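pasting for the record
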Amino acid sequence: MNPLNLALRFVLELIALGALGWWGWTLSESWWRWLAAMGMVAAAAFVWGTFAVPEDPSRGGQGLVQVPGVVRLAIELLVFAGGAYALRAVGRPGLAIAFGALVLAHYAWSHERLAWLLKQ
């Protein structure tokens, strides 16, 4: 995979996690906001890091649980969609649209990996 696309993917992952944490923070006015923010980030990061496709060129097949490519792709899309939704939910629809456009650009740039995932 292209190193610039891998860097874009990493930045998108961080944005998604940050957006989920921001959204969790806004769900409560009490101390629960800490738990919601950290819980959203931890849950998304756990799922992202736990499930992997063997020999994934973008991840080195690293993950505790090996899954088919379509499952991995669904996980990625859910985390990215969750990030976009979170940006929308905190009142930043423009950022949500820009983030979604960057995610689509990433997957267009990663069309070979996308096809590979769908074949696994």
